[in-house]
Amino acid sequence: MSNIIHTPHDRGMAGYHAAKRAIEFGDIGIPLSINGSEVSDYFAPLLPQEVCAVQAQTHNGKTYFTDWWERETIKHLEKKGLEGDVIHVSLEESLEALSFSEYGRLLDVLPSQLARGEYKDLTKIEIAMQTIDGSRIWTIADSAGNDDNEETELTLSNIHRALIAMQEGHITDKRKLRLITIDYLQALPIDSEVKKVEYKEQRRLQVRADVYRLRNMAKKMFVPIIVPLQCKQKLEGARLPYLIPGMYDGEETSAIAQRFDRVISLWMPKNDYPVGSTQYSGSQGNQTKEFDVYEDDCFLKVNKQRGGLPSSKVFKLKIDFKKHEYLGEFGRTVAEKSK
Q1: Does the bond joining 184 to the residue before it have cis omega, within 30 degrees of 0?
Q2: Element (H, E) at 68
Q3: Which among 56, 177, 208, 308 could bridge 253 via Cys, Cβ 3.0 to 4.6 Å?
Q4: Residue 192 has what DSSP assignment?
């Protein structure tokens, strides 16, 4: 009980040590830098021990965004002259599917063309493979080509063991881990203890337990973790016309909003409105307003930042689907743009 009761001196020392950590680890924090956007000035770099949720409804680009953020992190590390790797944990896509996505981006073809054997230029595939070989993004995922009879289930406990093994050099040589992405929270398997409770409660309890364990993982490994997660189908924190998930719109548990250090929400308007100028009812119900929708629009909201940092600002972004990049729109927020 004594560990949750703090004197005024404790409070002062906590702030001092937090400020000291920010100074010490400022250069190794993971920034969110988007060309043409002020989000990098607003969203403080992710520090070791922090967990950031990237939440969105289905088909709103949470995996697409985190894949891009991983590559931007590598660019940042190279620019700073820092060693270390990014680890991508995939719970739904196989190693082969992830590879097709990477080849598709490098070769400017659809991954489905590679999967169906329609793209036949093996020479170009071999050249692209050299780029992948030189990448600093490692993968933890199931592989269709794995002939090992003993399969390792991708529970959070096993993922943690694999990451520790990389850090300590038990399987590979010792790796310096700079960022871990676990895609995605609600896809983590149900563990044996949770299976003992009533079926309809299992997923909620599993997600809640995993939220706590992710926090412990980040602390013990001293590595920031990004966790894409699904949002509810019916949003509670959105305001028309912007259907951007709010703090408590993550599926299954409120622990996501309460326990994670950062929460980012994404929304692509084309999933809810037709492309072009569309109309919607205003807050009074009897007002009709117009809202312009473009194919490449994406809105990013910083729902939460710990440590007294600002939150709740919304940024309008553009997606360059050809280059797989996110760009700002003149560096302005939604509120500023509407003035």
Answers
A1: yes
A2: helix 62-80
A3: 208
A4: T
